[in-house]
Amino acid sequence: MKENWWADLERNKIRPGLERIGSLLEKLGHPERGYPIVHVAGTNGKGSTAALIADALTSQGYRVGLTVSPDLGHINERVMLNRQPMDPALWDQLGQVIEDAGRNMPDVPTFFEAVTAMAFLAFHYWQVDIAVVEVGLGGRLDATNIIDPPCLSVITPVAFDHMDRLGYTIEAIAGEKAGIIKAGSAVVLGPQPYPAARAVIMEKARGLQVPIVEPHWFPVVGPDGIDGISPHGPIHVPLLGAYQVQNVATAYAAMETLAAKGWVKDWSRILTQWSHFSWPGRFQVMQREPLWVIDGAHNPHGIGALVETLKLAPYRDMRWTIVFGALADKPAGEMLQMLKPLAHRVIVTRIPSERAGDPLQWREMVPSATFIDDPWEAVQAALAEAKAQEAVLATGSLALLGYLVTRFQHESATTRGC
Fold first, then answer.
1. Which helix (H) or strand (E) holds 103?
2. Do both 270 and 288 map to the same domain?
3. What reaction(s) does this enzyme catalyze (predicted)?
4. Three-state DSSP state, 325
5. pTM
6. Which of 274, 306, 325 is the last residue in one of the domains?
7. Separation between Cα atoms, residue 261 and residue 257, nearest integer Å
8. For 241-255, what is each residue's pLDDT tens digit?
9. How many domains in the chain?
């Protein structure tokens, strides 16, 4: 599948701003218009929350577009219709349309801008009834924010991440996230770990006279997932992370807000749909014997939420080998120090990416850590040594998880072929 558009396009280059995406979409005939959008921003939890909302809307019989980032190994997973990734042939077909439209632009769009245009073009092609769009980075200057006032804006927990681009105070970061709020829309605000972030977002909404809703009902997490008695009946969502409580509550509040706008026909269908929900890379069990889990926590707030999950039964009784890899712009030392008290053993590894952090530097912070260069070999070594009541957790970066999932699928296919 097409993963590069213009010859000098740098896949990982980030250049905030709306001018390039605006010009590209104009050349494409503004495919971002003509259908309502739920716009989802935040530091952590926005992917799970967006997918929960998309599933709920799909349960009502709508054609629902969904775009998320990053993917976990297959680029077409970034653009979905009713939670099914775009067909690779259609991806290449629409990719060529984007290539032709942007070839002569004086300022070449970024990789993320090209994929964002791809999503909007696909939604137009599919004639979706509604689309759920996850912000890539920040909000105010993110390519997805080129849209007109959305049907609904959703902001999940805001915490410290990407400070070099969003600011070094929680107020500055929250201000960037709040940039998706537009007059004429409505906002659902998930639980905020920092009161100052909540205050900034609330002030932005008040200034634009945009109504803001916060979750009023919360489920609980147990060994089999998220459970509770919601105002519309019993709910079970088979997500294992403790942090998913907030995501489910936020998605529920979003659906209540959309219900007031006429989007919900039958709540029982939503609860049934969520009872089969899955989302990759979020405390995802890859195998049971021995237990191997992957989790996409990639900043201190995410690691903190992961730690709370590891303290739950039955995980608190296990001896964990943690395979850790992070990108260079992440506070890997702080993240490792948070994980260390729960780790029986730590293996640091190098993500196959030009943005990878140096695991040899992390060993200075955790001298007892073992270094294995390849993440797949690191996981296999950990699993090979696992004894009773021992388990393996790979975490620190979604890029790490993407590599591991791709290798896992390849190895599984090879085994089946034999």
1. none
2. no
3. (6S)-5,6,7,8-tetrahydrofolyl-(gamma-L-Glu)(n) + L-glutamate + ATP = (6S)-5,6,7,8-tetrahydrofolyl-(gamma-L-Glu)(n+1) + ADP + phosphate + H(+)
4. coil
5. 0.93
6. 274
7. 7
8. 999 999 999 999 999
9. 2
